[in-house]
Design a protein that fits this description.
By secondary structure, the chain is an alpha/beta fold. 32% of the residues lie in helices and 25% in strands. The chain is globular. It binds adenosine-5'-triphosphate and magnesium ion.
């Protein structure tokens, strides 16, 4: 048995002993004596009688050894700001914010909704909530009023923390009017709003409700707010899933299990060490931002680099496709975390930019959020010369479910596969209608997790245990297992491959095909920059595949002849690789694909448009024009 296999076996065969050991990676006020309570499946309660605090573990704990070392490095290429906070400074800022929240009436268990751009004040607010036992609910900055209002109603916050504006590619997005409108349409009216004024957009203040952070900060500068010791099984935060497949779900997370899971992942998966710098390009509005911009690196004693801006603009606001690599060099980043969608943006830049900087500090680049196609993986791996580690997880899991744990044992990655199940996750592939476990190599089925789920995993759906059980644990006949709603296979070496969402599986004349398989094959064509494949109802075949391609050069979008030629070539590639059945009925060329604000393909929306249905909830769509172009293409037939 390899070292990792042994480690994994211990985690699933003797989870209590395994996690008791991991629990030593964090500080406890009261160390737990009972590690797991799984008496009420599918609910798993970790470190039941322990008490601790996330903010203590992220900040206070490090003051003695590294108080003057960097904790939070803020870089905004939108405002041209670059600022470093030491652990001591972070400690002061967080206490100041905590004091302001307390002054606004926030107590343990109250919700604080954070609707903020990528600024340090957002991290201060999250940590301040954790410090006093308030439950934070971060909503992606810039979401439309409707989506924000729905979240305000669900969270019923005492306070909303916000700012005058965010900025994206030099374009200022005023948040305050969006927030005002959201509060106007929400049934719940938050009694107080705490506002950071960045001086980007004018703000109208509502007397009695709205407070400027700067004014409260003056009052509370230097105030000491001790950490409130919380039950490990208490609630740290709620966060909504990305809404790729439908209405977002409010994922609720605990305190102690989450702290342990993150501390363990910093060591075993990310191999990040105290005193080093971690750079995640995600956003605090997403789970990756919670786990690996704010809590994980800080708990691990690392500095976290928080970045506001596009990957293609410099601090001087001039175009710079090398900005991220410049930052890796400058701050000696050892661990970097991004998404395939960001790498695809960089791929359009001059490849020489990857060679321009000294990237020798970098140990690995982790990518997550959607499938990492092989051409993109090869491109970035070749350019950086460090391991590119795909990791598969969900908002629900809080940390990677499937990846490579190089901190335990160096193991090679395989292109197209995120890797193997992480310790604590009993990942299985089941037949989606019989529930039978598929153990053979390359058998396709639903990727599920058997309980008890490990520390850090969602506790439940906020305010709705029934929805948690019904929506996640009852989809496989005869078995109570957690469904990821992803479709996958495992190869002969135990590496998993995610083939798409179960919703996206296409049934062509009785054959089951993951859209991802077809996309992977299409993206192998040199003329293809991006592709989405959806299944569309067909009277004859049940379903056919339709492909939407963003060509590398725009010719095929505007020129019918070029389109016809490229379409033929793509059809041939798919037929050669996957067989004639998988060949899309049509390949259409577009300027861009509809994605969520987190950069995920909105296949369900494309599919709905193809079938002339209403695309449904589009609140999380990034660029509605992309869907419009598809509509026009289809109607011009
Ligand atoms: P919703 O659940 O609201 O529809 P969502 O599933 O997109 O939205 P997230 O929790 O942000 O919300 O995304 C998790 C999903 O992203 C996974 O279930 C999987 O489909 C996809 N995913 C994440 N990482 C990877 C990866 N490395 N490879 C393949 N797919 C991935
Ligand atoms: Mg999901």
């Amino acid at each position: 048995m390899s070292r990792y296999e042994e480690f994994y076996r211990q985690s699933v065969d003797a989870p209590e002993a395994f996690w008791a050991e991991q629990a030593r990676l964090i500080d406890w006020k009261t160390p737990p004596t009972q590690v797991l309570d799984a008496s009420r499946p599918p609910f798993a309660r970790w470190f039941v009688d322990g008490t601790t605090n996330l903010c203590h573990n992220a900040v206070d704990r490090h003051l003695a050894a590294r108080g003057d070392q960097p904790a939070l490095i803020f870089v905004s290429t939108e405002t041209g700001t670059e600022k470093t906070y030491s652990f001591r400074e972070l400690h002061a800022e967080v206490q100041r914010t905590a004091a302001s929240l307390i002054a606004l009436g926030v107590a343990k268990g109250d919700r604080v909704l954070i609707y903020m751009p990528m600024v340090p004040e957002a991290a201060f607010a999250m940590l301040a909530c954790a410090r006093i036992g308030a439950i934070h609910c971060v909503v992606f900055g810039g979401f439309a009023s409707g989506s924000l209002a729905a979240r305000i109603e669900d969270a019923e916050p005492k306070v909303v923390v916000s700012a005058d504006a965010g900025s994206r590619g030099g374009k200022v997005i005023a948040y305050k009017p969006l927030l005002d409108e959201a509060i106007r349409i929400s049934k719940h009216k938050p009694p107080a709003v705490l506002l950071t004024d960045r001086g980007l957009a004018p703000m109208a203040l509502t007397a009695g409700r709205d407070h400027l952070a700067a004014e409260l900060n003056l009052k509370h500068g230097g105030t000491e707010v001790p950490c409130t010791w919380l039950a490990a099984t208490g609630i740290s935060y709620t966060i909504y899933t990305s809404g790729t497949t439908g209405k977002p779900k409010g994922v609720q997370r605990d305190v102690g299990g989450y702290a342990v899971a993150l501390a363990a992942s910093m060591k075993h998966i990310f191999d990040g060490r105290p005193g080093e710098t971690y750079f995640s390009t995600s956003d605090i509005g997403w789970v990756v931002g919670h786990s690996y911009i704010v809590y994980g690196p800080l708990i691990g004693g690392m500095a976290t680099l928080m970045y506001e801006g596009l990957p293609t603009q410099g601090i001087d606001k001039q175009p710079d496709g090398g900005i991220w690599w410049r930052l890796v060099e400058k701050y000696k980043v050892t661990v970097m975390f991004s998404a395939p969608t960001a790498v695809r943006v960089l791929k359009k830049q001059d490849p020489a930019l990857l060679k321009k900087y000294d990237l020798s500090s970098l140990r690995a680049l982790f990518l997550a959020g959607e499938p990492l196609d092989e051409p993109t993986a090869r491109w970035i791996a070749g350019g950086l010369g460090v391991p590119i580690i795909d990791n598969y997880w969900q908002t629900e899991s809080g940390w990677p479910i499937i990846t490579i744990a190089n901190g335990v044992e160096q193991k090679p990655s395989k292109f197209g596969s995120p890797g193997v199940p992480m310790y604590g996750f009993r990942v299985k592939i089941l037949h989606e209608s019989t529930g039978e476990e598929l153990t053979g190599a390359n058998e396709k089925g639903v990727v599920v997790i058997e309980g008890p789920t490990p520390p850090g995993f969602m506790q439940t759906v906020w305010k709705d245990d029934k929805r948690f059980v019904d929506s996640y644990w009852k989809s496989i006949p005869g078995k109570m297992v957690y469904s990821t709603f992803d479709w996958g296979i495992r190869d002969e070496d135990g590496y998993f491959y995610i083939l798409g969402r179960t919703d996206d599986v296409i049934n062509v004349a009785g054959h089951r095909l993951g859209t991802r398989e077809i996309e992977e094959s299409i993206s192998g064509h040199a003329g293809v920059a991006e592709v989405a494949v959806v299944g569309v109802a067909d009277a004859l075949k049940g379903q056919v595949a339709m492909a939407f391609v963003v060509p590398r050069d725009g010719g095929a979008v505007t020129n019918a002849g070029a389109a016809l030629k490229l379409e033929g070539e793509i059809m041939k590639v798919v037929a050669d690789q996957l067989g004639a059945l998988a060949r899309p009925a049509r390949v259409r060329f577009v300027n861009g694909l509809p994605k969520t604000r987190s950069g995920k393909l909105l296949r369900r929306a494309i599919q709905a448009v193809c079938e002339q249905r209403d695309p449904g909830d589009l609140t999380t769509i990034d660029d509605p024009a992309t869907l419009q172009q598809i509509k026009q293409l289809l109607s011009s037939d």
